[in-house]
Amino acid sequence: MCEMEVRMKTSVLNLAIVATLFAGAANAAEVSVKWGEVKSFTDFEAVNELKSRFEERTKANFTEYVEALGQKLPEQNKLQVTFNDVDLAGRVEPTFGATSSAFQRILDDISYPHLVISYKYTDAQGSVLSEAENVELKSLAPPRNIRNVMGSSRDALYFEKELLQDWFRETFPDAAD
C-alpha cells in the first residue's frame, strides 16, 4: 500500500470514530447532576491533597460517570440526579514515616461505600416517569475477586461506580446497553 492509501484509510477510520462518538451523544438523555452540602457528607475526605481539589475532582468523576450512564436513555428524556450524602469506600488512616506523617485510604470489608441520591426522570413533555428521594446505595462487603482488586486499583471510585451502575440497571432496565 502506498503512503497516500494509508493516509486515506486512516482519515476514513478517524471520521468513522468521530461519527460514532457524536451519534452516541445525540441519542443520549439530558443528564444533570447536583450536589447537596458536601461539608455534611459522611466521608468525602481528601487524602494527602488539597480538600478543594479533591472535592472538585471527585464530583467531576461522579458527574461524568452518571452522564455516561445517561447516554443509554432515550434522547428526549431528562435525568436529574442529586447526591445527598457520600461515604466513600474505605477509611482514612494515618501512616507514620521517619520524618513525617501522611494519610491513606484503607479498603476493607467493613468500610463499604454508601451513597444517598435523589433522582427525577422525565419524558420530553416533562411528565415524571420515575423519581425517588434519598435512595440508599450500599454494598455490605464488596466482593474480593481479581477483577475488583484490579479495577479498584485503577479507579479511586470503582466501588462507588459499581453502586451507581447497579442502581441504574435496576431503575432503568429498558435502557440500551
From TrEMBL:
The keyword Signal applies. Pfam families: DUF3016. Keywords: Signal. Residues 1-28 form the signal peptide. This is DUF3016 domain-containing protein. It comes from Pseudidiomarina andamanensis.
